[in-house]
Amino acid sequence: MLILWRATMSVDGGQIDRDHQVLIAIINEFSDIAVTHVAADRLQRTLLSLDSYAKRHFSREEELQRTIGFPHCDSHHREHLLLVDRLTRFRSELDGTKIADLGAAHERMTGFLHHWLIDHVIKSDLRMRPFAARLNGVGHMPHLQESANLAGLSVMIVDDEPFMQGTLKAVLRAIDRSLGVTTAGDGETALRRIGELRPEVVLCDVNMKPMSGLEMVTRLRSHTDPELRDTAVIMLTADSGDATIQSATRLNTRGYLVKPVSPNQIRDRLNAIFRDRQPVAAAAALG
Q: If you average pLDDT over every residue of the chain, what do you get?
């Protein structure tokens, strides 16, 4: 069952809400994975992404609680520890699950994740709302104010994992719903679509097949059209090694973010790149 974000779930009108939207997107992706003989690895990768993002989110949430003087910090922290422990056990369980039992394991984990959203995100987290509302009168952390210069920005996601495409769409939706977002699942398609659609910025995974993200950007930088050659590119990857970062830097990329990324990280990078950009009216192309 697809989980939809609603305004009634809003906690702070800022980073916590954006985090929750990303978590919902990851859980929806996990629920939607078809259980086949190749599903175990994909389920494991999705749980790992959820585990990594949840830990970062819990850290931000607890920081906000301390800032707003939330009186239930200790009990909330214990809930976070229990949730992380459950995710860790699920990942261990998947490692030992036989193919014949995969469907039952997937159903059990999906049920837990949905209850997590209902019992923790919707019930426990909402108790923070009146305290968060004291921040700037509307609940926004000061560094999360909207950036008008990003309105209507055209963005292309290049990633060979449908799950990551969906997660990045959710992140961009959390930043600004007016962003025009398109996707490409491989380097060749991306180069063709960049020529057709001329996005203002490309979010590109490094570790793609058959053409890596670095190879794709290398070809983009040698394009015959000088405007396309200068397309802003932000590299996204789980590889934080110096050699990869240096390779990306030599290609005149505009940023290098290590997955999993938060709305704030991408937002800050976009703001740095397009600080002087004039906003345009554009309908979001998310979908």
A: 83
Tell me the C-alpha distance between 233 and 14, whole Å: 26
The answer, as to whether pTM is greater than 0.70, is no
pLDDT at residue 241, as a whole number? 67
Alpha carbons 208 and 169: distance in angstroms, whole number:
18
What is the structure's pLDDT at 144? 39
Distance CA 199, CA 220 (A): 13
What is the pLDDT at residue 165?
86
Q: Indicate the DSSP class of residue 150.
A: G
Report the distance separating Cα 177 and Cα 58, nearest Å.
24
Q: What gap in Å lies between CA 105 and CA 30, rounded to an integer?
A: 12
- Between CA 262 and CA 22 the distance in angstroms is 8
Domains within the chain, CATH numbers bracketed: 7-142 (1.20.120.50), 148-273 (3.40.50.2300)
